[in-house]
Write a structure and sequence with these properties.
Blueprint lengths: L7 E7 L4 H13 L5 E6 L15 E5 L12 H7 L13 E8 L8 H12 L3 E2 L4 E4 L5 H24 L4 H12 L24 H4 L4 E2 L29 E2 L8 E6 L10 H4 L2 E10 L9 E7 L12 E4 L5 H10 L9 E6 L17 H7 L9 H8 L5 H11 L4 H9 L5 H7 L7 H7 L6 E4 L10 E7 L2 E2 L8 E2 L1 H10 L8 E10 L14 E4 L6 H16 L8 E7 L9 H10 L4 E6 L16 H7 L1 H10 L3 E7 H20 L3 H13 L3 E6 L1
Parallel strand pairs: 1-2, 1-3, 3-4, 4-5, 4-6, 19-20, 19-22, 20-21, 22-23
Antiparallel strand pairs: 7-8, 9-13, 10-11, 10-18, 11-15, 12-14, 12-18, 16-17
Length: about 675
């Protein structure tokens, strides 16, 4: 008889902003429901695991940061497995699955996970389950949820195989992947295709119906006699008449008690999380009042904290949730009179999960909702499913079931994810829903800091750092009222009265997040091209301030050309840093300032084909750009919007290189990939 193998596996995560960690913890919490036990560790904590001798199945959850780099917490691990002295069979004993997180709005989609995946394969490790690539640009849950759902069967087969015969190890990966690669039509993909693009995955009917089919009960659904228009609150046929495949109800694992009495000192610990209280020493509105967007520059006094930074680094700011929204949430949960109670959080009996580390013991309820939980986050389908059981009205229950169902995915995307709907919006839309506090603590993610690139150089502004941001505006729509971005609205509120306040506290500033690559070249003679429309110009102001000081300190040195391509809507309304940029151009720090204004009318001369966007000016200066990158071995930096600008600039770069070298698009793409690998094509972009 085969020896019994304990159903135990290891979860390793590499996380930059907490998403990979959150998903890894979710898998860990679900393990017990599926008859297994998971140990979990961050990849950075290498004393907690040893893959060189690991016999358990291993599940990796890895995000991507920067220009397709593994997260900071995985860098040491990646360096270790990339050791060229490791033999090709080093991990031949290892069975693993990997979920990679990325964003298709950025270059090198999921490259952090892909880097680890490919290297493990090179060292002989075997998949027991297909690699998943989750896209934050379309919603991580679109891939993450079905990937986790299929993981449990793959693990069961792996445990069974381990218990039956070690000789089946070599065949295990193919066997599992064959089932996972089946398409909706029943045809199978090539068995050698180990990586599955889960955007195209359709779960088989058998998989999706495992005990989860919920048929519509006409007695619970109110008949609508009005014109049928889909909305957050209401569906239309065929969805309103369909049987639904909904996610399994997530198991509760927390017990939350509110106790009268004193609470702990309610601050974010500087020692623990690295945050510092700093003051805003200056604030300037960079745009005119009638500009489409309001851009604000903040000068923060960091002299007492001794925070060293380089031009190109970013700072994390942790802001609170809006006080009015916290108050409304407390009122909606009938907890307003208990907001100052101390919160005690414990695991339910027999639960193998862990109490979320970001929820402090003995903090007040108001503090936790203000500083610890992301109450603005769009509820995931599992959260929506859990809310159903705390909703009294039949039609409201049905609509929530639709929104979390497989059949209602389009409605979920339209009315929840894409609409930036949060928990409070759902509670407004479904008034009979009254979830317990424990459900919020289980499902709301940790309140994450927001990163802002330094728009200054410490050489020119010692003891200070400048940050620039547009005040984000979310217009009113049927799903929610008008509101400002959480952090930009909070920062703007600090300086709204006179926009040049002194000593205004900015309570939570983390030390700079050093950029491993987004800095000026170490050799000042290397030429650079900078592309930064709108607030994307921020890090380049720091670059130019640094270069200006370097030129003053060493007048005999040779400095490479600096080109800046800047764009905005109107020359007279939102030309950020205009005077400073023109000064840089005048004194020779900036060799070429190339600007465009997308909404201004043509001048009196009636310029034909006037450049509208930065990519148009790049095309006009294609010969110079190509020469800098290909002949002079210069560097290209791009900062700003990922969804449109960065993609358009990349397409233009492919065109420029293709024309210059007289090569086709595929070869141009290889050349651009080479620039990325050499860290000479760098991006600091956001969606």
């Amino acid at each position: 008889m085969p020896c019994e193998v304990a159903a135990r596996f290891l979860i390793l995560y590499g996380s930059q902003r907490g998403q990979a960690q959150s998903i890894a913890e979710e898998i860990c919490q679900q393990a017990a429901e599926h008859g297994s036990t998971a140990d979990i560790s961050c990849l950075s904590n290498q004393h907690n695991y040893n893959l060189d001798s690991e016999i358990r199945p291993v599940v990796f959850v890895v995000s991507t940061t920067g220009d397709g780099d593994p997260p900071d917490t995985a860098q040491k691990f990646v360096r270790k497995i990339k050791n060229k002295s490791l033999p090709h069979h080093h991990f031949s004993h290892l069975r693993y699955a990997l979920l990679a997180l990325g964003d298709t709005n950025y270059a090198n989609f999921c490259n952090g996970g892909k880097t680890i995946d490919s290297r493990l394969q090179q060292l002989g490790a075997k998949h027991f389950y297909a690699t998943g690539h989750a896209d934050d640009g379309t919603g991580l849950e679109v891939v993450v949820d079905p990937w986790i759902e299929g993981l449990w069967d793959a693990l069961k087969k792996t445990f069974s195989s381990m218990a039956t015969s070690d000789q089946q190890d070599a065949d295990l990966s193919d066997c599992t992947l064959d089932n996972f690669h089946k398409t909706a039509s029943g045809q199978e993909k090539n068995k050698s295709d180990l990586e599955v693009d889960l955007h195209l995955l359709k779960l088989s009917e058998a998989d999706s119906q495992k005990g989860k089919e919920i048929k519509s009960d006409s007695s619970d659904v109110e008949t609508l006699s009005t014109v049928l228009v889909a909305s957050l609150k209401q569906s239309v046929p065929p969805l309103s008449q369909s049987a639904l495949s909904v996610p399994a109800l997530p198991a509760s694992y927390l017990e939350v008690r509110l106790e009268q009495g004193s609470t702990e000192r309610e601050t974010v610990s500087s020692d623990k999380d690295g945050y510092h209280e700093v003051s805003i020493s200056k604030a300037v509105q960079l745009t005119q009042d009638d500009a489409v967007k309001t851009a604000i520059l903040l000068e923060l006094d960091i002299s007492e904290q001794n925070l060293a930074y380089q031009a190109g680094d970013a700072f994390d700011i942790l802001c609170p949730n809006r006080a009015s929204e916290v108050e409304e949430l407390l009122l909606r949960l009938d907890l307003q009179t208990r907001k100052n109670c101390a919160v005690q959080v414990n695991l339910l009996k027999n639960s193998t999960a862990k109490v979320p580390l970001h929820i402090p013991q003995n903090g007040s309820l108001q503090f936790i909702l203000t500083w610890c939980l992301e109450i603005r986050s769009a509820p995931k389908k599992a959260f929506v499913r859990a809310l159903v059981d705390f909703t009294q009205n039949g039609s409201e229950k049905r609509r929530l079931l639709e929104l979390c169902s497989k059949e209602g995915s389009a409605d979920y995307n339209s009315f929840v994810r894409d609409a930036n709907v949060c928990l409070l919006d759902l509670l407004r839309a479904f008034p009979s829903c009254l979830p317990p506090l424990s459900l919020l603590f289980e499902h709301l993610p940790k309140l994450q800091p927001r990163a802002y690139s330094a728009a200054s150089s410490s050489l020119q502004h010692p003891g200070k750092v400048h940050l620039v941001f547009n005040v984000v505006e979310f217009p009113a729509r049927p799903e929610h009222p008008a509101r400002k971005g959480l952090c930009t609205g909070w920062l703007a509120g600090h300086v709204s009265s006179i926009l040049r306040p002194l000593g205004t506290p900015c309570r939570r500033l983390a030390p700079p997040r050093p950029s491993s690559t987004f800095h000026l070249p170490a050799d000042p003679s290397v030429p650079v091209v900078m592309v930064g429309p709108g607030t994307g110009v921020a890090p380049f102001i720091g670059f130019l301030q640094q270069r200006e000081k370097e030129r003053e300190a060493n007048r005999e040195a040779t400095f490479g050309e600096m080109w800046l391509f800047f764009g905005c809507r109107h020359k007279d309304k939102d030309f950020l840093f205009r005077e400073e940029l023109e000064r840089f151009a005048h004194n020779g720090t900036l060799s070429h300032l190339i600007v465009c204004f997308s909404r201004d009318e043509p001048d009196a001369a009636g310029t034909v084909n006037r450049p509208t966007y930065v990519q148009h000016n790049l095309r006009l200066h294609a010969k110079n750009v190509a020469s800098i990158l290909l002949k002079d071995k210069g560097s290209l930096y791009v900062c700003g919007d990922a969804k449109n600008m960065a993609k358009d600039v990349n397409d233009t770069l492919l065109e420029i290189i293709g024309n210059e070298l007289q090569i086709d698009k595929l070869d141009a793409m290889k050349t651009v990939a080479g620039l990325r690998e050499e860290k000479r094509y760098l991006q600091d972009i956001w969606s």
